Amino acid sequence: MRKFPDGCADQRIYLGPVLEEHLSLLFLWFNDLEVIKYLDLKDIVTPENLRDSWRTMSQRTQTDIVFSICLKDGDEIIGETGLHDINTTTQIAEAGFIIGRKDLWNMGYGKEAQILLLRYAFDVVGLQRVLAKVHYKNIASLRCLEHIGYRSEGLHGHQFCLSISKLDYMRKGGLKNT
User: Fold this and answer.
1) What CATH code would you report for 13-172?
2) How far is the C-alpha of 137 from the C-alpha of 118, rounded, in Å?
3) Taking 50 as the threshold, does the pLDDT of residue 178 lie above it?
Protein backbone atom coordinates (compact mmCIF):
# COMPACT_ATOMS: atom_id res chain seq x y z
CA MET A 1 0.00 0.00 0.00
CA ARG A 2 1.25 3.46 -0.85
CA LYS A 3 1.90 6.20 1.71
CA PHE A 4 -1.00 8.59 2.18
CA PRO A 5 -1.44 11.76 4.27
CA ASP A 6 -2.83 11.49 7.81
CA GLY A 7 -6.59 10.99 7.83
CA CYS A 8 -6.70 10.22 4.11
CA ALA A 9 -7.65 6.56 4.35
CA ASP A 10 -10.68 4.58 5.39
CA GLN A 11 -11.69 0.93 5.12
CA ARG A 12 -12.02 0.76 1.31
CA ILE A 13 -10.05 3.64 -0.18
CA TYR A 14 -7.22 6.05 0.38
CA LEU A 15 -6.15 9.34 -1.13
CA GLY A 16 -2.63 9.28 -2.48
CA PRO A 17 -0.42 11.13 -4.90
CA VAL A 18 -1.25 11.21 -8.57
CA LEU A 19 1.58 9.18 -10.07
CA GLU A 20 2.96 9.24 -13.59
CA GLU A 21 1.71 5.68 -14.03
CA HIS A 22 -1.86 6.97 -13.50
CA LEU A 23 -1.74 9.33 -16.49
CA SER A 24 -2.84 6.80 -19.12
CA LEU A 25 -6.02 6.00 -17.14
CA LEU A 26 -6.67 9.67 -16.41
CA PHE A 27 -6.32 10.41 -20.12
CA LEU A 28 -8.92 7.76 -20.93
CA TRP A 29 -11.31 9.02 -18.26
CA PHE A 30 -10.97 12.69 -19.20
CA ASN A 31 -11.74 11.78 -22.81
CA ASP A 32 -14.74 9.55 -21.99
CA LEU A 33 -17.84 11.65 -22.65
CA GLU A 34 -19.91 9.65 -20.18
CA VAL A 35 -17.38 10.26 -17.40
CA ILE A 36 -16.88 13.98 -18.07
CA LYS A 37 -20.36 15.00 -19.23
CA TYR A 38 -20.92 17.14 -16.12
CA LEU A 39 -17.41 18.59 -15.82
CA ASP A 40 -16.64 22.14 -16.83
CA LEU A 41 -13.51 21.35 -18.83
CA LYS A 42 -12.11 24.34 -20.67
CA ASP A 43 -9.68 22.46 -22.93
CA ILE A 44 -9.49 19.15 -24.70
CA VAL A 45 -7.32 16.80 -22.65
CA THR A 46 -4.31 15.62 -24.62
CA PRO A 47 -1.46 13.43 -23.36
CA GLU A 48 0.80 16.50 -23.48
CA ASN A 49 -1.38 18.90 -21.48
CA LEU A 50 -2.27 16.12 -19.02
CA ARG A 51 1.45 15.50 -18.40
CA ASP A 52 2.02 19.25 -17.97
CA SER A 53 -0.86 19.43 -15.47
CA TRP A 54 0.52 16.40 -13.64
CA ARG A 55 3.92 18.06 -13.27
CA THR A 56 2.22 21.08 -11.71
CA MET A 57 -0.09 18.94 -9.54
CA SER A 58 2.74 16.80 -8.22
CA GLN A 59 4.38 19.91 -6.77
CA ARG A 60 1.35 20.56 -4.51
CA THR A 61 1.14 24.24 -5.20
CA GLN A 62 -0.18 26.83 -2.77
CA THR A 63 -3.49 26.92 -4.65
CA ASP A 64 -4.14 23.31 -5.70
CA ILE A 65 -3.75 19.91 -4.03
CA VAL A 66 -4.79 16.89 -6.09
CA PHE A 67 -5.03 13.27 -4.97
CA SER A 68 -5.65 9.96 -6.64
CA ILE A 69 -8.55 7.96 -5.20
CA CYS A 70 -7.29 4.40 -4.81
CA LEU A 71 -8.75 1.13 -3.62
CA LYS A 72 -6.89 -0.19 -0.61
CA ASP A 73 -7.30 -3.68 -1.99
CA GLY A 74 -4.83 -3.74 -4.87
CA ASP A 75 -3.74 -0.07 -4.81
CA GLU A 76 -5.78 0.55 -7.97
CA ILE A 77 -6.66 4.13 -8.93
CA ILE A 78 -10.40 4.64 -9.45
CA GLY A 79 -10.59 8.42 -9.60
CA GLU A 80 -9.19 11.77 -8.65
CA THR A 81 -10.11 14.46 -6.13
CA GLY A 82 -8.64 17.72 -4.98
CA LEU A 83 -8.80 21.16 -3.49
CA HIS A 84 -8.55 23.99 -6.00
CA ASP A 85 -8.23 27.76 -5.82
CA ILE A 86 -7.08 27.51 -2.20
CA ASN A 87 -7.17 30.98 -0.66
CA THR A 88 -5.05 31.07 2.48
CA THR A 89 -6.37 34.52 3.42
CA THR A 90 -10.07 33.59 3.42
CA GLN A 91 -9.29 29.92 4.20
CA ILE A 92 -11.63 28.74 1.43
CA ALA A 93 -11.09 26.27 -1.42
CA GLU A 94 -13.15 24.51 -4.05
CA ALA A 95 -13.42 20.72 -4.05
CA GLY A 96 -13.82 18.50 -7.05
CA PHE A 97 -13.84 14.79 -7.76
CA ILE A 98 -14.26 12.25 -10.51
CA ILE A 99 -14.76 8.51 -10.30
CA GLY A 100 -13.40 7.26 -13.60
CA ARG A 101 -14.22 3.60 -13.06
CA LYS A 102 -17.82 3.48 -14.27
CA ASP A 103 -18.33 0.00 -12.82
CA LEU A 104 -17.83 1.60 -9.37
CA TRP A 105 -20.36 4.42 -9.79
CA ASN A 106 -23.14 4.64 -7.21
CA MET A 107 -21.24 2.48 -4.73
CA GLY A 108 -20.26 5.25 -2.27
CA TYR A 109 -16.66 5.77 -3.37
CA GLY A 110 -17.23 9.43 -4.28
CA LYS A 111 -18.79 10.07 -0.89
CA GLU A 112 -15.92 8.34 0.92
CA ALA A 113 -13.36 10.29 -1.10
CA GLN A 114 -15.05 13.58 -0.28
CA ILE A 115 -15.17 12.77 3.43
CA LEU A 116 -11.43 12.05 3.34
CA LEU A 117 -10.82 15.25 1.36
CA LEU A 118 -12.79 17.31 3.89
CA ARG A 119 -10.79 15.80 6.76
CA TYR A 120 -7.63 16.85 4.96
CA ALA A 121 -9.02 20.30 4.11
CA PHE A 122 -10.13 21.15 7.63
CA ASP A 123 -7.74 19.16 9.83
CA VAL A 124 -4.49 19.43 7.85
CA VAL A 125 -4.75 22.47 5.55
CA GLY A 126 -6.73 24.48 8.12
CA LEU A 127 -9.49 25.68 5.81
CA GLN A 128 -12.70 27.15 7.23
CA ARG A 129 -14.96 26.49 4.24
CA VAL A 130 -15.00 24.25 1.17
CA LEU A 131 -17.09 24.99 -1.91
CA ALA A 132 -18.28 22.71 -4.68
CA LYS A 133 -20.00 23.36 -7.99
CA VAL A 134 -22.23 20.64 -9.40
CA HIS A 135 -24.00 20.59 -12.77
CA TYR A 136 -27.73 20.73 -12.13
CA LYS A 137 -28.26 17.40 -13.94
CA ASN A 138 -25.60 15.59 -11.89
CA ILE A 139 -28.03 14.31 -9.29
CA ALA A 140 -25.68 11.61 -7.92
CA SER A 141 -22.93 14.13 -7.04
CA LEU A 142 -25.44 16.61 -5.67
CA ARG A 143 -26.96 13.99 -3.35
CA CYS A 144 -23.50 12.78 -2.33
CA LEU A 145 -22.38 16.25 -1.26
CA GLU A 146 -25.64 17.12 0.47
CA HIS A 147 -25.53 13.82 2.39
CA ILE A 148 -22.13 14.63 3.88
CA GLY A 149 -23.22 18.12 4.93
CA TYR A 150 -22.80 20.51 2.01
CA ARG A 151 -25.54 23.12 1.80
CA SER A 152 -26.86 24.67 -1.35
CA GLU A 153 -26.03 28.33 -1.85
CA GLY A 154 -28.00 28.65 -5.08
CA LEU A 155 -27.85 28.06 -8.79
CA HIS A 156 -25.34 29.87 -10.99
CA GLY A 157 -25.89 29.16 -14.67
CA HIS A 158 -26.05 25.37 -15.00
CA GLN A 159 -24.35 24.67 -11.69
CA PHE A 160 -25.50 24.37 -8.11
CA CYS A 161 -23.11 26.10 -5.74
CA LEU A 162 -22.71 24.31 -2.42
CA SER A 163 -20.49 24.73 0.61
CA ILE A 164 -19.62 23.17 3.94
CA SER A 165 -18.03 25.04 6.82
CA LYS A 166 -15.57 23.68 9.34
CA LEU A 167 -18.25 24.22 11.99
CA ASP A 168 -20.76 22.04 10.07
CA TYR A 169 -18.01 19.46 9.58
CA MET A 170 -17.30 19.43 13.33
CA ARG A 171 -21.02 19.21 14.14
CA LYS A 172 -21.14 16.03 12.08
CA GLY A 173 -18.35 14.59 14.24
CA GLY A 174 -15.64 15.20 11.67
CA LEU A 175 -17.76 13.09 9.31
CA LYS A 176 -16.48 9.95 11.02
CA ASN A 177 -19.90 8.31 11.18
CA THR A 178 -21.41 9.60 7.94
Assistant:
1) 3.40.630.30
2) 24
3) no
